[in-house]
Amino acid sequence: MPMIRRMGLNDDAAYLAITTHDARFDGRLFVGVVSTGVYCRPVCRVRTPLRRNCRFFANAASAEQQGFRPCLRCRPELAPGLSLVDSSTVLATHAARLIEQAARQGAAPSMPQLAGRLGVTDRHLRRIFQQAHGVTPIDYLSTQRLLLAKQLLTDTDMPITQVALASGHGSLRRFNAAFVQHYRMNPSTLRQRAAPRRGRTAADTPVLRLAYRPPYDIDGVLGFLAQRCMPGLESVDGLEWRRTLAWPHQGEVLQGWIQCRFSPPTHEVHLRLAPALLPVVGAIMQRLRHALDLDADPSMIDPTLDALPVAPRPGVRVPGAMDGFEIAARIILGQQVSVAAARTLARRLAAEFGEAVDTPFADLNRLFPSARAIAAADAERIGRLGIVRQRVRALQALAREVADGRIELNPAAALQPTLDALRALPGIGEWTLQLVAMRVLAWPDAFAANDIGVLNALGTRNVAQVEAAAEAWRPWRAYALMRLWLTLETQA
């Protein structure tokens, strides 16, 4: 039976986490109850099961492999995931990310293709994956698909056929068979049970819930986003972040908007999105987890950051990217200029080359331009926006590589090959590489020692001294950089 010893827990410690409803273990620990056949999150508020009836698992796939079905109350599909360095095997974590991405995009990756992308043999990948996660890649993929389907059935009114396709099942018949086999009920029965609890807004738009581990520095994340908001594309209002979004799907580009509201009492983010984006809702939810860094574990990160010579910020997060090309382009525009200047240049670029989009929000009406649009644009036309020639060359070189599929900018992309490909482009230096690794590729140890904000926060101009001090902040130097930035922005 897959155990949780790699987390540093024995069964007695795991049971203590269950009895105390310890949120630090949410997403890291699941308990199967043999008397009910159900598995739960540690934060579940049902009556605590007897110790002798409990079986402990490191992930949902392991619990389902042993025949347990997900709890309808705590809903294991809502549990936060794991960030890259949280796993003892980076290769297996990359594989899990690729599988999760495929599951949420409706794809069905073959093991030889997956292994080839990671640069290892099929056999080696299966062995490493089994050691790290306690299940085979196929079992892991099946669980991800079913949990996504369960959430869509519970929280939306999407027709069951669309749910089957959106969760990566090739046909309704296969979906029904897999659902009944694992959860011992058909999809219609689950939907009927969930209907009274389904969240709704005045606009009757589905509300999807995404959990995070507390503490979470909501003020830091929303403040960071607010300072960089581009009018027409995104806005921050209280606990809410809204933005426009375009997403490729089956040869076309879906256009719409997302609305995210933090719910501190429940440690969740509540997501609404345009109906046009529902066919890719699984992929958007996964990317939003990255964009708001919902899978980070403060209990691992914060103790390391205590060595920073600035005021503590419990639960600091690193904002990621809903659109990897957009953030990479904005990082290029931010080279050697202030945050306000970079935002102005990005706003001009969007106004000139971005498409108009309809939303229910008066302040959202435009999309950020696609890589293909920037690659095809006239360089002089871009330059007239106030962007210097060197930045135009870097921006268009990046756009061409992304548009042609030679560079992928998302958390599932291989870190070092992607950085090497970016490094070969004109106008891409170490500062840009580290920020792309931090915000686009989700690398938690990225660190730009020569960043002017870092130097100002530490009160020095000695880059070598900063690099030496940063060794104590590994493997969470991206979070250290974020805390230093927030220190300056709070003072300002």
Name a few traits of the molecule:
3 domains, 46% helix, alpha+beta, 10% strand, Endonuclease III, domain 1, Arc Repressor Mutant, subunit A, single chain, four-stranded mixed beta sheet, 492 residues, DNA Methylphosphotriester Repair Domain
Give a concise summary.
The chain has 492 residues and is an alpha+beta fold. 46% of the residues lie in helices and 10% in strands.
What features would you describe in this structure?
The chain has 492 residues and is of the alpha+beta class. The protein folds into 3 domains: 5-76, DNA Methylphosphotriester Repair Domain, CATH 3.40.10.10; 84-197, Arc Repressor Mutant, subunit A (Orthogonal Bundle), CATH 1.10.10.60; 209-491, Orthogonal Bundle (Endonuclease III, domain 1). It has helices at residues 11-19, 60-65, 90-104, 111-118, 122-133, 137-155, 160-166, 172-183, 187-194, 218-227, 281-291, 298-305, 324-333, 339-353, 371-376, 379-383, 389-403, 415-423, 430-439, 452-458, 463-470, 477-491; strands at 30-33, 38-40, 54-57, 69-70, 208-211, 234-237, 240-249, 252-263, 268-273. The strands form 2 sheets. It has a 5-stranded antiparallel beta sheet. Strands 3-1-2-4 form a 4-stranded mixed beta sheet. α3 (90-104) crosses α6, α6 (137-155) crosses α9 and α13 packs antiparallel against α19 (430-439). The longest helix has 19 residues, at 137-155. The protein is globular and about 65 Å long.
